[in-house]
Amino acid sequence: MENVDLSIVIGGPQGGGIDTASSMISKAFTYSGYQVISVREFHSNIKGRHSYIHLRVKNSPVRSVRYPVDILVALDPDTIFEHHEDISKGTRILYDADFETSELSQARMIMRDTSRRIKEMLESTGHTLNVKGVLEYMKSKGAVPIPVSFGNVVSEAVSDGTPTRYFNTFGAAATLAVLGIDKNYVEKVIRSVFGNKEKVIGPNIKVVDAAYDYCSKNKLRIKNLPDLEMGKKMLLTGNDGSAIGKVIGGLRFQTYYPITPASDESTILEEHEELKWMEGENTNLITGGVTVVQAEDEISAINMASGAAMTGTRSATATSGPGFSLMAEAISFAGMDEIPLVVTLYQRGGPSTGLPTRNGQSDLLFALHTGHGEFPRIVISSGDVKECIEDSVRALNYAQRYQLPVIHLIDKNLANTTELVDIPDASSLKVQEPDKSDGKDSFSRFTLDTKNGISPIGFFGRDIFWLTGDEHDEKGHVTEDTWMRDRQMEKRFLKIETCEKEVPMSERAVVIGPSSADVTFMTWGSQKGLVLDVIDALGKKGIKANLLYLKMFEPFPSEFVSEVLKKAKKVIGVESNMTAQACKVIKMNTGIGIENLILKYNGRHVTEDEVMDASLRIIEKKEKVVVLKNGA
Amino acid sequence: MAHNFRTDVAIDWCPGCGDFGILTALTQAFTELNLDPKNLAMVSGIGCSGKTPHYINAAGMHTLHGRGIPFATGLKLANPNLKVVLTGGDGDLLSIGAGHFVAEGRRNTGITVVLFDNQVYGLTKGQAAPTMALGMQTKSLTRPNVFGQVNPVALALASGYTFVARGFSFDTKQLKEIVKRSIMHDGSSLIDVLQPCPTYNNINTMEVYRQKVYKLEDDKSWNPTVNESNVDHYEDIYQRAFVKALEMDKRIPTGVFYENNTIPSFPRRLNEHVKDYLSSPPALQAVQKNGKSLVDPANSFADKILQ
């Protein structure tokens, strides 16, 4: 079978059902046996501003998105204005014919500077300042506009007086019809998306029928995608993956304060607070629950989680940059008092409120240095949904094993990207218990009598001991004794050496691809899959490349990274920040600098085409630093 | 044998400090209630009050400035069987930790908050705390206090604490009884404890307080308690508590201002939503067997499966 590789953008006003439309498209492709990934972009806004989903569909594993798109579905005029550069020859632009007369000056939800740039482009190319003008511009690049009177077609199908509420279903169904996806799957999707709300399902299925009839009558089909074998899968975001991993890893207490893009994880946990499992031969389901608490602020959230952790409960909190800034003092306390605590840090565009709903990888150095004083911590990062699941389990294990704060980095792009993944096999993921007190009255929480720095932990409700933010003796009482101070500092840091000995390199840093190559990429977080796609594409051009992929930043795998980089011929760092923070960490730990950089800090997701283009500029044209600009 | 709840850690409060009376009332209350020291959690923030857990033989958590309430809440919600008692200062609870103080009223988690109210920041050399009156100038202040005064009893009532009381650190007998009632109360308690700081507060001394305080319970008609039986009179009782709370100048009432047993505690509220929360709270749940997770994601997250 020929390779299927389709790129789609569906855009519309925030609050206009874009998520539902995207979900319909993703699920329909999944039912047809295709692999799909979708990235969500939106403003910090409830209703009205431009929101879109960027999807890619393949008949093989899909791990990145790309421009130009093959189909642009516009549920509002803004989508056509915003995405005028994301098309190429043959791109189908599916839109409501009524949009054509919309003037750019009336598109008030487009950011002022964006509007100005569109105006300048239209003026300089001699087009009118409205949707018609933009469509003419896109036609000049070879795109094919498909005007459909959404209102008329939908009104004929359903007569409840508000056709606009079905525009998202219509847009999704028309897209699937144009690509030749079997209509039966789309109907199955409608049932899956709307659950058992029969009143909603009926009219939506009529709208699907209308979309298919319309596309058939007007011969709009451009593909005829055959059915493929479909396994049992889960369609998950990074937020979902982290929540599922935490529950597998034994999380029973999660706190949070509302913040984008972290709070979705806590909502998902709350939706699934009732847990079920089988015990041995007993086929009755045992139930338990995750307690999710919305705190009054992030300071409270993290300290509540620390308090809960000291009862023996696996506890975590999830936040993003501004909230994490507030948690700094508490991280230091958890380090000092050896509290098993997980903080899932969803990175978004900073500084300050920054780009609250956009992507960024600018909190790495902060995560490594949060909190005053010197204390051990573990900092890890995930690059795709499967890793989010596994790393959440590991984060809880590390916290229990080494009794310290574990910071788990997930970038916004990954948090809001939907991937098709295998159902996680919980039996393949180890859940580790901590070394615990013997329950005797003579218990010393911070005993120095340890070879690996790990003093058996005690729990409130079970043992008597003390915790204090002050330096403390073995019992946990305040001390300023110089000898005890030195011993406790050394004991705490010995745990990091133990961690380095025990954690396998596969959980810290890996080389993917050939062991020797002309070009070695270095990246972390959500660019992983994308860089691997670029490496494949370079291979087709005869350029042999591999990837140094970083997962654990503290303790940093210095020797391994150093060996890889010493052997590398040309190294290119790819990061979603301005100051190449992972490269800095490498330099700090190995002394090796990386001078070729592909960076992006406009907050939008990185796409395969722009990294490919940037890589060629570095490899062939000897450019040093390329800043990526894609994204509406 | 009853436990005396004292450790051998040397107490380093100043001679004559009101903290000693609070420590005595607390440990006597624990002994008289015959609490299991392993089931008692002492939590504190920073300052002289923050040292209290080290002097008490029960699991203790001496935390961050102002953050005692979040730690205490986490302990209690992860294991609602614990009796959680928090000792905090007026700066700790009403300045840096004021947000948590109010939020705790909304939660009504079921912790006892003991407010060491001496109107100054003692450990940092006597700066004005939120309970000090406007214009007051203690000996360590370079100028009269330019801040107004927070009323802890009224703030607790307004925030939703379901047990609100005031004690005096030199009346350990009354304070001990208040502590005992608060520990047995299923909801969060605020006990405002008037105490002198002999080193930095030369205005509100033990003698001054002795002349001003009077006991609410000396009025035989005083009934601060709302139960199912008199819940119709809830508004009257709540309003009377406020009126008494505002009496702070010439005479200062001590005793229980308000006790409402009809408002469910946070653990009871959670139990409505998290299955078996009270019988199988987070701290007591198994999470693994032979190193394998007990949770099957295909079951717990079945809604995410496509087939």
List descriptors.
heterodimer; A: about 625 residues; alpha/beta; Pyruvate-ferredoxin Oxidoreductase, domain 3; Rossmann fold; 4 domains; eight-stranded mixed beta sheet; 25 strands; about 40% helix; B: about 300 residues; nine-stranded mixed beta sheet; two-stranded antiparallel ribbon; 14 strands; about 30% helix
What does the model show?
The complex is a heterodimer of chains A (632) and B (307). Chain A is an alpha/beta fold. Helices cover 38% and strands 22% of the residues of chain A. In chain A, helix 18 (528-540) packs across helix 21 (608-621). The two termini of chain A are 34 Å apart. In chain A, 56% of the residues are buried. The model of chain A has no long low-confidence stretch (mean pLDDT 96). The model of chain B has no long low-confidence stretch (mean pLDDT 96). Chain B has 307 residues and is α/β, with parallel strands linked by helices. In chain B, strands 1, 2, 3, 4, 7, 8, 9, 10 and 11 form a 9-stranded mixed sheet that branches. Chain B has one domain: Thiamin diphosphate (ThDP)-binding fold, Pyr/PP domains (Rossmann fold, 3-Layer(aba) Sandwich), CATH 3.40.50.970. Helices cover 30% and strands 19% of the residues of chain B. Chain B starts with 18 loop residues before the first helix and ends with a strand. The interface between A and B is large, with 86 and 65 residues. Strand 7 (233-237) of chain A pairs antiparallel with strand 14 of chain B, so a sheet runs across the interface.
